[in-house]
Amino acid sequence: ADAVLKEFLEKYPQDPRVFFAFDSIAQKAYRAGKWEEAIGQYTAFVEKYPDAPQAPAALLRISEFNKQWA
């Protein structure tokens, strides 16, 4: 599933659903205990789409994951 989502992100970087692809990948990594990977996905989203309406939600998740990981 991650490969399909990553392919979607590569082919359609301006699609309004890109956050959901980043979010799906990050949540899967989080559930697998790969917090660094999850944080990396949200960080990549914020860096690439800083003005997106979902950027604050991504920053919040980064903060939440950092608190749990610390």
Question: What would you say this structure looks like, in words?
Answer:
The protein has 70 residues and is mainly alpha-helical. It is 76% helix and 0% strand. It contains four helices and no strands. The chain has helices spanning 2-11, 18-31, 35-48, 55-69. Helix 1 packs antiparallel against helix 2, helix 2 packs antiparallel against helix 3 and helix 3 (35-48) packs antiparallel against helix 4. The longest helix is centred in the last third of the chain and has 15 residues, at 55-69. The protein is flat. The protein starts with a helix and ends with a helix. The mean pLDDT is 93.
- Count of helix runs: 4
- The gross shape turns out to be flat
Fraction in helix: over 70%
Quaternary state reads single chain
Number of strands: 0
Query: What is the averaged pLDDT score?
Result: 93
Which H/E pattern describes the elements?
Answer: HHHH
Distance between the termini: 29 Å
User: pLDDT under 50 segments (min length 5)?
Assistant: none
Radius of gyration: 11 Å
Structural class: mainly alpha
Main sheet properties: none
Quote the beta fraction.
under 5%
